[in-house]
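Hi, here's the filled form for the chain we discussed.

Project: internal
Contact: R.S.
Residues: 367
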Amino acid sequence: MYLILCYINNTIRRSVLKIIHTADIHLGSKIGGFPKEISEERREEVRNSFKRMVVFAEQNDVSAIIISGDLFDSDRPFRKDKDFFYSVVKSHPSITFFYLRGNHDEAGEELNFDNLKLFGSEWNSYTLNGVTITGVELSSENSTSYYSTLNLDKSNLNIVMLHGAVADGEGAGIINLSRLKDKNIDYLALGHYHTFTENKIDGRGIAVYSGCLEGRGFDETGDKGFVLLTVESDKISHEFIPFSERKIVWDKVSVTGLSDAYSIYSRAKEIRKFSLSDIYRVELIGELDAGLDGVSADVKKYLSDDVKFIDVKDSTKKKIDVKKYENDTSIIGEFVREVYKSIDYSEEDKARIIAYGLKALSNVEVE
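And the returned structure, exactly as it came back:
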């Protein structure tokens, strides 16, 4: 009988098990920084990407989805978002959902779905096809004690779920990786940071932030998606899967040496192959002639047909060609010469004053 049990256990352990690690979905997020129609569309796309991920799991024989916190954007989520999540869980009984609540999530609600596993303020463990999944929801009360109370079997494959910031020291929401060394962790599934990152814990384990599924603003640029874990031959391997419906991109474009908006547009096109499905910010840097009016607005117009949404940010330093105004007898020439010879302003301030003055004297609205 003992040999039979060992054979069964080894067979289970050798079979391939797939698990998705995700976090920071932020269902119900308001999503600011865009026009209202774009914000509303992005809000729906966040919800849709979660649904698409679950369909991906079903179609690719994924047994479990572990959600390492901030499923919702608020500790009082909209009924619509809660019902959406619970309906998705109930509609996919073949997938087990391990949901560890984060600092944005609702606390205290216990649901009795067979395929939804929750965690609490003390370590809780589940077993899935020979893999142990353990998690604790961090708080000010357990912020220093949760390290010492973590006890994992060395002979198991151990996935640990936490939501917080990897940092030195201690405190609420802090995860100090040095204090998790030699704890028999194979894969630490983290949530809180919205970009995929990974760090070694020790010779055995790795700590991974899955990042969010969809970028919600220009502070969440680049590839977004989830991590696909494959458990095979007594080891856990992982791969980041880009999965967002749209990508948010922030490019810096040097305008030094350029003298008109179309040239700047052309340089931006050289740097980036724009996609109609994505959202972009182009930040203009370098030196730009102070007399070049409305360049940001013009560049935005030129790029608008190439993208879903574009924002152009002018971070240029204004350059003044004083020689151009040496013999100018108009009020503009007199204004430029008077500002330039002043000893009360720095060169940067002079350029800024002249830029505003040129706009005002040309009846251009000054920002």
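Let me know if anything looks off before we file it.
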